[in-house]
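Could you join me in thinking about how sequence relates to backbone shape in a protein? We need material for that, and I hope you will provide a protein of your own picking. Once you have written the record down, we can walk along the chain together:

…
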Amino acid sequence: MATVPDRLRRWERFAPLSGVVAIALWIIGTVILEGATDTPDEDAGAEVFATYYDEEGGTVLAGAFLFMLGSAILLWFFASLRARIHAVEGGVGRIASIVFAAGVVTAAMSLAVVAPDAAAAFAAENIDPGLDPGAAQALGVLGDGFFIAAEASLVVFFLAASLATFRTRAIPTWLAWASLVLAVAAVLPWVGWAVVIWGFPLWVLVVGIWMFVRPATPAGARAEPVVT
């Protein structure tokens, strides 16, 4: 009969797949927000935003909630990534902690990207006589600021992930080079948006699946970190 620690270790192996679940929720939430509703352009008038939140409030709130839930689940993935790196790095785990901290900031900023939409949708349905058009417009574009913040946090995250991989080989070396390229791309305004929308989700999917397929080495057989 399996003991409680044995069952916990069995479930622990599935922890990296939390990244896959998070990205799946991002995709579903985005489809609901962008596909099932007629989202106003950024240069749309205040009345357009007010009408949008008034008529599509329930759909916007549902899509935003799923997206934010995905961002929250990312914390589980980052914790698994930190444990994987720290197991090889040893010591105080400074690099592993930087990767985790940058990941937490990224998750928080991605959550905040859709939080203003959720707030506007909630207000439109619960405030009488309705959401002021100026406030609706402001909330409609507020998420762009958090998007830029997520882009900036990804620079640190990918740099730390690259350094951690080069030093510990906790994940494949080619991912270190990919992380370095993504870190540089995130700095460039004309391609940085693509890192947030495409690069980061794809990186999470690849790393999450790789960590699941290649479980961590038991602590007693831990590989030594590579010194650079």
